[in-house]
Every structure is written in C-alpha cells, then in structure tokens.
Amino acid sequence: MKIISINAGSSSLKFTLFDMTDETVIASGLFERIGIEGSKYTIKFHGEKVSQEIEMNNHTDAVNVLLDKLVDLGIIKSLEEIDGVGHRLVHGKDKYSESVLITDEVVSDLDKFKDFAPLHNPANILGINAFREVLPNVPMVGVFDTAFHQTMDATAYLYPVPYSWYQDYGVRKYGFHGTSHRYITNKVKDILGREEFRLISCHIGNGGSITAIKNGKCVDTTMGFTPLAGIMMGTRSGDVDPSIIPYVMEQEGKNASEVIDDLNKQSGLFGMSEYSSDMRDILERCDNQDEKAIVARDKYVRRIVDYIAQYYVLLGGTDVIVFTAGVGENSVPVRRQICEELACLGVKIDLDQNNKRGEVVKISTDDSKIDVYVIPTDEELMIARDTLELINR
Ligand code: ADP
To answer: Would the CB of 90 count as within 6 Å of ligand 1?
Structure first.
C-alpha cells in the first residue's frame, strides 16, 4: 500500500510517499516557485537527493513532474502503485470534525470557507485539482488542520463579543495544528497504554500552539479565529490588546490589514529582538548578553508557561506535557527554561535526558509530578494513516 501525503501552498507542493505496510518513507520532496520563474524540485529517496530547475507553470505541471520523476528515478515502477493521496487541508470551519474522502462538496466547501484561510484554502484546492486531473481514479482524502479542535465546548470556542458575530459571521476560535496535536495524542496513548489522560501538547516551531487534551479530545487550544492568536511565535505576536491596532494605524498611516500583517510577519521573536525569528539566532545572542534577545526569549517562554499553567487548571491537573516541532524538538535550553518555570507544579527536568534525541524521550525525572516528553511530530504520517483508513473503509 503506497500513499502520498501532500501539502500544497500557493506556489509550492510538499510530498511524502509512504509504504504503509510498515509506515516507512519511500521518498519525500518539495516543488517550489510553481508558476514563478526559476521553479524547481527536490526529491529525496534512498539517502539520495535529486534537484532540478524545470518549468512548472501551475500545480498540475508540478504533479505531472512529480509522478514522472517517481517512475523515472525508479522509486515506483508505475503509477498504479499509488493507492491513495492525502491532502493537508487548512480550514474546515465547524463542518469538518474528521478527515474525509474528497468529493466535489469538500472542494466547494474549501472555496466557501476561503475567507477564513485566504492563503491556504485556495492553495489546497489547487493541489486537489492537480491530482484529480493527473490521477483521476485514485481516491483522495482531506485532513483538516482545524478538525481535531472541533471537540472544544462553547465556553472554549466562543469569544466574549456580540453573539451575532459568531452567529452571522462565524467569529469563534477554530484552532490549528490539529493534525500534529492528534499525532502527539495518539503517541501518548501508545506510551501510556491507556485512553484516559490529561495532556498538554506544545507544538512550538516557527508557528506555535498549545492544546489541552482530556481523554484523547481537545478541550482548548491557543490559536484562535486565525493562527495569529495564542503564544508568541517566530514572527507572530500571539495574543495582544486589539486596541493597539487602530492606535498603530493612526501613528504609521497604515490600514488594518497592514498592521495585522505586522503582527503576523514583523512581531514575535523577530519583532522583539529586531534580529531574527529563529530561536537558534536568539539563543546565540542571549549567550552574548544581548538584552533585546534575552527579553524576547524570556517573553517567548513566559507565554508558553502562562498557557501551560492555565491548561493545568482547566484539565484539573496534568499527566503529560509534550514538546514538539522545531523549537520543542530541538531546543535544549528553551525546554529547560520552560520546565524550570513550571517547578511549582511539581515538574522536574532530568538535564541529561533533556540532551538526548530520539523518537520518544522522557525528559522529566521519575519523581516529577508530570511526565514531560519530547516527541517529534509527524503530520505527514498522520495524513497517510487517515488516507489509508478512509480508502479501506
Ligand atoms: P514551522 O512552524 O514552519 O513548521 P518548524 O516546526 O520547522 O517550523 O520550526 C522551525 C523553527 O525551529 C526555527 O525557526 C527555529 O527557531 C527552531 N529550531 C530548529 N532547530 C533548532 C535548534 N536546534 N535550537 C533552537 N531552535 C531550533
């Protein structure tokens, strides 16, 4: 059984080809600058990397090149070997609480919901249509970033704003990174060997969100109506007082979307440090006693600790905290700082364990009141698993 996981952006397409008999990655790669001069692809397989500039005017061209190369490079013998295609879809609003077989209705809903994810939903449609054109008989599955969070109750998902904004315009918390938080939840289920547990899943990468999970279901999450909300990120501010927006508009002669753009792209670690959105650069500057970098790092950690504390209370205690994504999986000092600030909840970190890498690493001591793990996320595999399950149903 071979399944391709696809993540289509407006000018890019990422793929991972899995052999689902043992969930191994056969090949993966990136098609970039689609429809722009200098379009190119990179495909990794059997420890090799092939890269080439090639004209690709649209996503259909990219899919054609991808499938040709998979055969030409001997990665698969023929296209018949591909049993299913899973697409990462961003916004399913409150209609989609699970992954689905892709039908015309799903595509039309993605278009209907495009105001909620103006960059992503149209790109997702491009990806779906390209595969439909090139592999018309292969079943396809859509896996929504928002789906896992649909179990939140109204107290979690409603904002304290006029109710008509929700009723008439769909203003509510949707949450994102759901596929990653679900993957982590399933991993914790396997580790603990039970379904009942209170988990705080910290997906901290360039984008970041924290989710509170009880007995396998999301009860709250930090991202909101859009991914701008919640914790501080690489370039996003996370939560701020919305009155800042008209004030800065006035000061800088900008319109609302320009200021929102600043909150999305010029804020977070980048905005506070006036240097970089990458935690590695920030930590290097912290080592050199750069004050802006130190405050940026400390604010970043503070926001995470604030939410963990909030979710600890919401869950009525916590059994497991997981760190995942770029910073969560790789940054030894950031994990240490977060755990040390959680000492009053009984979190104790094992500094040797915190230096280790692996599929699952427990970084808390045996007498820590909460088990803390580092688990690399795998959204692509989650998409492939859902695809396999739905096409076999
Ligand atoms: P995205 O949200 O784009 O998927 P990732 O999850 O790949 O992002 O995270 C990327 C971020 O991870 C980088 O911007 C960087 O800040 C951080 N990162 C990666 N490796 C390290 C490291 N060794 N130490 C600290 N931060 C790291």
So the answer is: no
**Most distant CA atoms of the chain, gap in Å:** 61
Contact 84, 125 (CB under 8 A): no
DSSP 189-246: HHHHTSS--EEEEEEESSSEEEEEEETTEEEEES--SSTTSSS--SS---S--TTHHH
Q: C-alpha 152: how far from its chain's center?
A: 18
Backbone angles phi, psi at 233, to 5 degrees: -125, -170
Which of 304, 331, 338 most suits a substitution to test ligand 1, by most atoms within 8 Å of the C-beta? 331
**Tens digits of residue pLDDT in 90-117:** 999 999 999 999 999 999 999 999 999 9
Is residue 261 flagged as an active site residue? no
What is the CA angle 277-281-283, rounded to 5? 110
Q: Is 24 exposed, middle or buried, given 0-12, 13-18 or 19+ CB atoms closer than 10 A?
A: exposed
Using alpha carbons only, give the angle 353, 355, 357 rounded to the nearest 5 degrees. Answer: 90
Query: Following DSSP, what letter does each residue of 315-328 receive, concatenated?
Result: TTS-SEEEEEHHHH
**Taking the complete model, does pTM exceed 0.85, yes or no?**
yes
pLDDT at 220: 99
Closest C-alpha to 262, from 272, 209, 293, 33: 272
Which position among 145, 220, 378, 386 bears the catalytic label? Answer: 145
